[in-house]
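ok trying again, last paste got cut off:
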Amino acid sequence: MLSRVLLFFGLLGMLAGVALAAPSSERQKQLIHRLKHDCGSCHGLTLKGGLGPPLLPSSLAAREEAELVEVILKGVAGTPMPPWGSELTTEEARWLVRVLKEGVI
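nice, full thing came through this time. structure:
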């Protein structure tokens, strides 16, 4: 019984580590640069909005992470929002969403 409990918590810890995996520090720098320049060209250089809506923690708070990741990866048909899925992984898009929602840039 004890071994099953330890196995369960070990697996849970491994899954948590996977869920919290972040891009390398070098890739994070590249992603922040892309966010400021590529995303900023439509969402405003301060991300307060422009052609696209603001990307501030207050404007993203009610949006689910999965929904925002999908918008980043697939774009939005009929709008200038392009799909970035050919250039970003799902985990990189998740990381960007967390950065935006936390307002750490």
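cool. The CA atoms of residues 45 and 65 lie 22 Å apart. Helices lie at 2-19, 25-43, 57-60, 65-74, 90-102.
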